[in-house]
Specification:
The protein is of the alpha+beta class. Helices cover 17% and strands 36% of the residues. A hairpin with a 5-residue loop joins strand 7 and strand 8. InterPro entries: ArsI/CadI-like, Cadmium-induced_rsp, Glyas_Bleomycin-R_OHBP_Dase, Glyas_Fos-R_dOase_dom, SAM-dependent_MTases_sf, VOC_core.
């Protein structure tokens, strides 16, 4: 089957990474002159008949991944989808098929392939709309076949600066497929921010996670931030990984609990899960695999000044990464910088600082 053989037009499909879904929806609504066909907090789609185009928008930072998420074609029938895959297979183009997958607030059958420049292509049939996103959504962290093919074997650092002055933020990103090593031109305490995109989903990385995280911590300035994005499991995967679609590049899945322990052992603190959904992306044996985003910070030197703090509850006590414990209703002396970190977190409303009274104070109104 070729596209010219179809009775109805085949829709060209392009998926873009956008920083702000509502902003991009407003822009494309003006460009196309029609509202979005579908809009959710984490997804949006435009479907045009003239030209036949399906544009989807994914909430992924283009600065980290680039603007292009993937390309493809929306077919009109199961017969067209099967015929197209058969023709491509006979032409020597391998692909991976998914039947009845729930993805992007829709039920679809599809197959995926990569072009010579590792762009991801999706050929799919829309079978119906859904009210939920679906577990077939593949994390951005594992998209793209061997990034190393494009980047080459070099380990030279690519550091992005957010400004031109001496106070500009210095950032470095590592992606799945690149050698798991720190570039030689990165010096200790030179970075404000490090992003690891699928770094621990590459084959043979299981024993390298903790040593690599220690190297990353060494390159970060005190107070620097690590943003980690990968597929994790709730338990060890004992079966061979053979994930469908673009996730086929995943050959190793760290256990979340072990990954958190590795971050702590590397010296990171204020570790938080910024993305961890109730529904798994994949199930392998008894292991459930989920898209996971973590943020962690390199410790800052403790401030010499102290703050007298009372934790208001509702829990009996809070244990901090610094080895400190806040007991409900009890005054505790904290380093001032640690207290400020707590004040900028979700715990802010649960804490008060006790001020020294310099004169009689009345509590009446």
């Amino acid at each position: 089957m070729t596209f010219s053989d179809t009775e109805q037009p085949v829709h060209f499909h392009i998926s873009l990474n956008v920083a702000d879904i509502p902003r991009s929806v407003a822009f494309f609504a003006k460009v196309f002159g029609v509202p979005a066909t579908k809009q959710r907090e984490d997804y949006a789609k435009f479907e045009l008949d003239n030209p036949p185009l399906t544009l989807s928008l994914e909430p992924v930072d283009p600065g980290e991944r680039g603007a292009l998420n993937h390309l493809g074609f929306r077919l009109n029938s199961a017969e067209e989808l099967v015929a197209l895959q058969r023709r491509l297979e006979l032409a020597g183009i391998s692909s991976q098929r998914e039947e009845g997958v729930e993805c992007c607030y829709a039920k679809q059958s599809k197959f995926w392939l990569h072009d010579p420049d590792q762009n991801l292509w999706e050929m799919y049939l829309l079978e119906g709309d859904l009210e939920h996103r679906g577990a077939g959504h593949v994390p951005e962290a594992v998209r793209g076949e061997t990034i190393a093919d494009a980047a080459g074997p070099t380990s030279k650092a690519i550091v992005c600066s957010t400004g031109r002055d001496q106070n500009a933020q210095q950032k470095w990103a590592h992606r799945l497929g690149q050698p798991l090593e720190i570039p030689a031109d990165l010096t200790p305490e030179s970075l404000d921010d490090v992003a690891l995109q699928g770094s621990f989903n590459a084959e043979g990385t299981a024993d390298e996670v903790r040593p690599f995280l220690k190297q990353v911590a060494n390159c970060l300035k005190p107070g620097g931030t690590l943003n980690l994005h990968c597929l994790t499991g709730d338990r060890r995967v004992t079966e061979a990984l053979n994930l469908a679609g673009p996730a086929s590049v995943v050959k190793q899945v760290p256990v979340l609990e072990s990954l958190l322990a590795d971050l702590e052992a590397a010296g990171f603190e204020r570790i938080s899960l910024t993305t961890y959904r109730s529904q798994a992306c994949f199930t392998v044996g008894e292991a459930e695999l989920r898209e996971t985003r973590l943020q962690a910070h390199k410790p800052e030197p403790e401030s010499e000044s102290l703050a007298n703090v009372v934790y208001l509850g509702p829990f009996a006590e809070l244990s901090l990464d610094q080895g400190l414990t806040l007991k409900r209703g009890r005054q505790t002396m904290l380093p001032a910088n640690v207290y400020q970190q707590l004040r900028s977190s979700s715990l802010a409303e649960s804490l008060i600082e006790i001020e020294a009274a310099t004169s009689p104070v009345s509590c009446s109104s």
